[in-house]
Amino acid sequence: MAPSPSNLASMAKIATHESVYPPAEDSFLLVDALAALWDDELARSRPKLCIELGTGSGYIACSNALLARAHGCGDVTRTRASDINPDAVAACRATCEAHGVSGTECATALGDLLEPHADALADAGGCDVLVFNPPYVVTPSEEVGGRGIEASWAGGARGREVLDRLLPSVRSALAPRGMFLCILLAQNEPEEVMEIMRRDGLRCSLVSSCNADEEALFVLRCDRDA
Ligand SMILES: C[S@@+](CC[C@H](N)C(=O)[O-])C[C@H]1O[C@@H](n2cnc3c(N)ncnc32)[C@H](O)[C@@H]1O
What we know:
Layout: H1 25-45, E1 49-53, H2 59-70, E2 78-83, H3 86-98, E3 106-110, H4 118-124, E4 127-132, H5 161-173, E5 174-185, H6 190-199, E6 203-212, E7 215-223
Parallel strand pairs: 1-2, 1-4, 2-3, 4-5
Antiparallel strand pairs: 5-7, 6-7
Helix pairs in contact: 1-2
Keywords: Methyltransferase, Nucleus, S-adenosyl-L-methionine, Transferase
Family: Belongs to the eukaryotic/archaeal PrmC-related family.
GO molecular function, one term: nucleic acid binding
């Protein structure tokens, strides 16, 4: 079933800031994958904790909270969104407020990758859905590690330097039956990323793709079995 746009954050209400990545083809591809999951297995499994890393404008995190609500999980599902860029954290909160999404439904935090979620992960016994649209563009390594707009795209060698720091922690961050959704570019070598995740015992597949501005983008899904 095609996701209903009314269950997603509205572009007219997305907070914008010069140093924050605005929703683009990669964001839409990831939200569509998430919405399709909500229409099917997430509506049944009723996830308790969903985390978006690198939330940018908050488009994906806010949409997740709205999807949870639309599927009768507004009182069950807690979304957490974080970013290394303080302007993005503020934008995510503003986007949520513009959509009437409370700080309980979607909490925001500043910090590197999973670090701001350590307590929530420990309390919940892992997250049910972990989402990341990482900085995936191939750039010189020196461009990686900033906290401004360059953090949106600068991925260093093979566009993998930020993602590769996260991969070893994914399995332990997931609850039993938790899933990880991530955007990959063809240059990021998706087959190798899947091999790394499979070595950690996760089931992996590329669930959707699109061609955007001469880039081939994929959504990687990795599942932790119970
Ligand atoms: C491609 S943008 C995606 C933004 C948004 N999620 C979307 O899809 O529209 C990547 C985001 O990751 C953030 N980011 C980069 N490195 C990070 C890190 N180490 N920890 C957390 N966030 C990071 C950037 O600041 C940026 O907001």
